[in-house]
Design brief:
139 residues; mainly alpha; 5 helices; 81% helix; Cytochrome b561; DUF6220
C-alpha cells in the first residue's frame, strides 16, 4: 500500500506542475475567461480527488499521524483553491478590485500546495522504497 501511495503522490505532483502550465496558458489566452481556464478547472477537480485519495491512502497505509495530517491539509488547501476562486469572483462582480487581490491568494496557495506535495512525495518514497535492513549475523 505504501508503494501505491508513493506512486499517487508522484502522479499528483506531475498534475500540479501541469496545472501551473495550464494556468499560464489560460491567463494569456484571448478566448473568454471561462473557456480559457476550462482545462485548468477540470484538472483542478482531478487534483482534489487525488489529494483526498492520498490522505485516505496515507491513513490506510498507517503512516505516522503527522504525515496523515499533512496529507489531509493538502486536500483542504486544494479545496480552498475553489473557495478562493468563488469568493474573489463574487466580490469582483461588485466592481471592486478587492476580488483581484483575494484571487492572488490562489497563486500563493498553489505554491504552498506544490511544496507540501513535494514533501509528502519524498516522505512516501522513502517509506515505500527504503533500503532493506541488513540481516543480523548470528555470532
Amino acid at each position: 500500500m505504501k508503494k501505491a501511495v508513493s506512486i499517487l503522490a508522484t502522479v499528483l505532483l506531475a498534475a500540479i506542475l501541469v496545472q501551473f502550465y495550464l494556468a499560464a496558458t489560460g491567463a494569456f489566452d484571448s478566448a473568454p475567461k471561462e473557456e480559457s481556464f476550462a482545462l485548468h478547472r477540470g484538472l483542478g477537480n482531478g487534483i482534489l480527488l487525488s489529494a483526498v485519495l492520498l490522505a485516505i491512502g496515507a491513513a490506510i497505509a498507517r503512516f505516522p499521524g503527522k504525515v496523515i495530517g499533512m496529507s489531509g491539509l493538502l486536500a483542504v488547501l486544494v479545496l480552498a483553491q475553489s473557495l478562493i476562486r468563488e469568493v474573489s469572483k463574487s466580490i469582483a462582480d461588485g466592481g471592486s478590485d478587492v476580488g483581484n487581490y483575494i484571487f492572488g491568494l490562489h497563486a500563493v496557495n498553489g505554491v504552498i500546495i506544490l511544496g507540501i506535495t513535494v514533501t509528502l512525495m519524498r516522505t512516501f518514497r522513502q517509506a515505500a522504497w527504503k533500503a532493506a535492513e541488513p540481516a543480523a549475523v548470528p555470532s
